[in-house]
Design a protein that fits this description.
heterodimer, A: 94 residues, mainly beta, Archaeosine Trna-guanine Transglycosylase, Chain: A, domain 4, four-stranded antiparallel sheet, three-stranded antiparallel sheet, globular, B: 381 residues, Rossmann fold, seven-stranded parallel sheet, four-stranded parallel sheet
Chain lengths: 94, 381
């Protein structure tokens, strides 16, 4: 048996995963495609990047864009308000 | 997959067989409650029914009409005062051919006589509905309402996606799913609009979410300013769009067939939005059930006991502590998803089994506790 799943990816299109337990910096997580090494500690409910997300690119969760990267986000980085801007106005234009 | 329910004269299928004692107006609510308590029926009482204007008056009538015609309701006793706006006779006509009668406190000569007569009538109705037998029905005849309350991190992450997986399974089986909570849709309006089956439906999604945002602005704080809250951010939510998507995930991933007014009867299959902007979660619950939903999936992180007199409300939590300490009000434990023991898809299939069991008659915790809430909202727009 493999180790218990430590994070959730809600939709296959997502480029972030959400931790379902506190994860330590340096932790190595096997995903469907690759192994991800966490750059920062990730608390329960917080997100980390499954891919590199360059500045200006969408952060995708629930299969839809939830925000735009305001800095280059590396695979394994913590993804939160310090490196993501809301896109609510853009999303509302349809 | 099939379940067994009560086939009604209009062809719809009920999963409960309630005798509903319905007050037309706040003034008759105490009499209605006393009748229902003594006869073992359910009381449908509220604060509306008089002194209302225009769209609000129509809305109250629509909710009550939805209740008395509801397939989970086998018989109806309307309790009126005698001078209210809502016409008890019209509700009786709407409910027929199911057993339906009305009494008026003024015509009866006061509450004491009205209660005595009403108890007698409600008891006769209890006997009449007891003769109904459950008949086979398909999942395509089921209308599932979705709602959340007292949410936490586990709601957007596990229990709402699990309800979404259930919603997708139902839609694939030809069934119907309702989602509401208009303020919660605001941040995802554009994404939902792209899932609309037509430009008209997309326009309606923008229309109802713009209207609710204007209401919030008039109250002093826009939805976008207020969300995500500092507590949301500490819990890991980054943007309003993310928060909104976590809420709307309850409806699953299929195209949106249309936007219904609050308590409007749903007239098609697939996923629908109901504009339940007019009140609290309890009002939204009444709206969606009045619209014809026979059952509700309600996700709660911290635990909410709300049940409805006209339909089972299945309480789902993904938070292990809530499932344990508030087990009295929780029907379904989705915490295996948050422990990494179950996928969202697996949890959705387990939820479908739960829905079928409850549709077949297994009581929910809210039904065991008689913890029923019914409310009609006020139109703020």
């Amino acid at each position: 048996m493999s180790a218990k799943r430590q994070y959730i990816v809600i939709d296959p299109h997502d480029n972030v995963a959400t931790a379902i337990m506190p994860l330590a910096a340096g932790a190595e997580l096997a995903t469907a495609e690759a192994t991800i090494t966490l750059v920062h500690p990730i608390e329960f409910g917080h997100k980390f990047a499954l891919d590199d997300i360059p500045t200006g690119a969408y952060v995708v969760k629930y299969g839809a864009p939830i925000g735009r990267a305001t800095a280059d986000i590396a695979k394994g980085d913590h993804v939160h308000v310090h490196n993501v801007a809301d896109i609510v106005d853009e999303v509302r234009k349809g | 997959m099939q379940f067994k329910g009560y086939r009604r004269a209009d062809g719809r299928i009920g999963i409960r067989n309630q005798v509903a004692v319905v007050s037309t107006v706040l003034c008759s609510s105490t009499v209605a409650r006393r009748i229902a308590e003594t006869a073992g029926a359910v009381a449908i009482t509220h604060e509306a029914g008089c002194g209302q204007l225009g769209p609000e008056k129509e809305y109250t009538a629509r909710v009550l009409q939805g209740v008395v015609t509801h397939p989970n309701v086998g018989a109806v006793l309307i309790v009126g005062l005698g001078c209210e706006q809502i016409d008890p006779e019209l509700l009786v006509q709407a409910a027929q051919p199911k057993p339906a009668r009305c009494i008026s406190i003024q015509k009866m000569g006061g509450p004491t006589a009205a209660i005595a007569s009403g108890i007698q009538m409600a008891r006769e109705m209890m006997a009449a509905v007891s003769r109904a037998e459950r008949q086979p029905a398909g999942l395509d005849e089921l209308i599932l309402a979705t709602q959340c309350g007292s949410s936490d991190t586990g709601s957007g992450l596990a229990s709402n996606p699990a309800v979404g997986a259930l919603a997708d399974l139902l839609v694939e089986a030809g069934g119907t799913v309702l989602m509401g909570e208009t303020a919660g849709l605001y941040g995802a309006a554009g994404i939902l609009a792209r899932r609309a089956v037509s430009p008209e439906v997309a326009d309606r999604i923008f229309e109802i979410t713009d209207t609710i945002e204007r209401c919030y602005q008039r109250m002093g704080k826009s939805i976008a300013e207020a969300n995500p809250t500092p507590g949301n951010i500490a819990g890991g939510l980054t943007t309003l769009v993310e928060k909104a998507l976590g809420g709307v995930r309850k409806g699953g991933t299929y195209p949106i067939q249309g936007v219904l007014r609050p308590a409007e009867r749903v007239a098609g299959k697939g996923l629908w939005i109901m504009d339940t902007s007019v009140g609290l979660g309890a009002c939204a619950t009444s709206d969606m059930l009045a619209g014809g939903a026979q059952i509700m999936a309600y996700t709660t992180g911290r635990g909410n006991p709300l049940g409805s007199p006209i339909a089972p409300v299945i309480k789902i939590t993904a938070t292990e502590e809530t499932a344990g300490s508030l087990g009295e009000i929780i029907d379904f434990d989705a915490s295996p998803v948050l422990r990494g023991d179950e996928t969202i898809a697996e949890c959705g299939r387990r939820l479908l089994d739960e829905v079928l069991a409850v549709a077949n008659g297994r009581l929910t915790q809210a039904e065991k506790l008689d913890n029923y809430v019914f409310a009609i909202g006020r139109i703020a727009a």
